[in-house]
Amino acid sequence: MSRRVERLAGPDDLDAVLAIEEASFNNPTTREWYEGELKRPDVCFIYVMRTAEHPVAGFCAFWLVVDQAHINNLAIRPELRGRGLGSHLLESIVAETRHLGATSLTLEVRRSNVAAQRLYAKAGFYEHSVRKNYYTQPVEDAIILLRKIP
Length: 150
Description:
By secondary structure, this protein is an alpha+beta fold. The chain has helices spanning 14-24, 31-38, 85-99, 114-122; strands at 3-7, 44-51, 58-65, 68-76, 104-110, 126-135, 140-148. The N and C termini lie far apart (30 Å).
């Protein structure tokens, strides 16, 4: 399956990103948040993964502040999961944050999201700390994962 990862330059693919959000998260990020973030291209970076069959097969949104990157959201269309797309997208994001000068990359993941934890562990992330009751719908702790970027 051919795939490429590229920066979302504007709102054209936003509907597809939001559809993946809705299908992936209990408390999806809003259109307004994404539209606001698109106005801050020096801090917020949104990348989409494209395949021949799907113009937006997955996406990742992250912030870059000085030399620290933080993944806000990363998701693959539900019907495409388990095919290595998440790993490919994550590898591409790590490479891009390195290129942008980041020395570390962090994110939060639900304690119950074992599949995501495995994905991140395979990519070199490790548990850094815990945010108690961070998530809502349902209330749940967030595990903060960290990866150093050499």
